[in-house]
Amino acid sequence: MNGLSFFKRASRAFDDYPTLAKLIVVCTVSGGGYVAYADANSTSGAHAIAPVSEIRKKKVVVVGTGWAGTSFLKKLNNPSYDVQVISPRNYFAFTPLLPSVTCGTVEARSIVEPIRSIVRKKGVNVSYCEAECFKIDADNKKVYCRPNPDSSMNGKEEFAVDYDYLVIAMGARPNTFNTPGVVEHCNFLKEVEDAQRIRRSVIDSFEKASLPTMSDEERKRILHFVVVGGGPTGVEFAAELHDFVNDDLVKLYPAAKDFVQITLLEAADHILNMFDKRITDFAEKKFHRDGIDVKLGSMVVKVSDKEISTKVRGNGGEITAIPYGMVVWSTGIGTHPVIRNFMQQIGQTNRRALATDEWLRVEGCNSIYALGDCATINQRKVMEDIAAIFKKADKDNSGTLTVKEFQEVIDDICERYPQVELHLKSKKMRDIADLLKMAKADVAKEAIELNIEEFKKALSEVDSQMKNLPATAQVAAQQGTYLANCFNRMEEAEKNPEGPIRFREEGRHRFRPFRYILILYKAILPLSMYRCLAFLHHA
To answer: Hey, which of 52, 159, 401, 438 has its CA 20 to 30 A from 92?
Structure first.
């Protein structure tokens, strides 16, 4: 009877409250049971509980499967996001080993991993679409895509994807500087297919040079390998090619040994000029000992099918034609057409890459982030905020700043403006008091008090230490990891900010700014060079 009374009361509840959506009766094996019901139409009240499945997740769209995009995906573990990955390349490539692929040291299949295998291992909801993004609409929060152009589709299947957050990690194109003949006659080294093509070209050059009909002059031309660009990629490839030729190919083609020549052309004064000077000096000396001809200050003006024309700075503009057999062009990165179009939309027309803040947000677009080669961090200058920094440090509003007051905020300053710490190191200063003393040389450190003008003078040279980050896989990977960690802690950081003081506003930034840490890998140069570079870096 108790059970019947219970069901009568439940039935009467439906008559009295027609808004009740459903009644679920669950009976246990022992004969007992309970009833659970919910008002699906109600949006208020103590008993209105939204099912977890009905809570809308933020949608994160990731464009690109390179180092930045893949590192972001691997580290993202916050289940409150729905993630969609869009890229025409359905695999991740370990690009630092591309020079090794060109010489057969590593097989191409060993440096790739399917994106679907990566996302399948994730604990969050991630989907992948093999397509290319051809337009970004920031106003409507949409990206427009079409099938991979290499597929058999005819392009009519274009579609749009909405987003709450957009992570742009689509990389960049090789920068040819509009030099005539580069696209037609040079090899690039950005993709796995490029590395395989270069390997075939190197072998073909040795095979052609071994033909009995070839003259010595023609052999010398065919076996002249020219690398344009003294950045990480160009240096890595030149070093790998040297080892490949001397360790393997001269044994297979002994008659070609005396004709092989490797030349590295660099328009700047040094190779690897984005790294420490000791690394630059060591690499140049190592190449000289190995017989690699490094021509500094040489700018390429034209490339034909058999000659590369260069103009040496300080030589009266004289142009020299150099015969070659193969050219690898690695002079840096250029703007992707999609990025160029997007930059025009948001008013960044005078840049080669998307400008972001120190938290990797695209300037002017709070819901869009850009990582890797397609972006550059626009580090804020100390002198732009010098008045705000002074005011924040001058807690007693005396109009002067003591060493003690400045020391209380120096950690936040160094974190917000990393160039301050770099400046101290470059000037071999022990602490911030040494920096402030520059404005008052005749005063003891502990007695220093600076007004705003003297404070400006002390920090006037700090911003000279600002440098753009190199376009390397390491930078992109660290940016992807950093941004994923920010997304993982987004809700927590909203409540408890963990970043430095906001000098122009109140409170703190949600996160610490991105900070790049240089790590030397063996893939950068052959082992003998790596050991020396590691020693120099830590000396």
So the answer is: 159
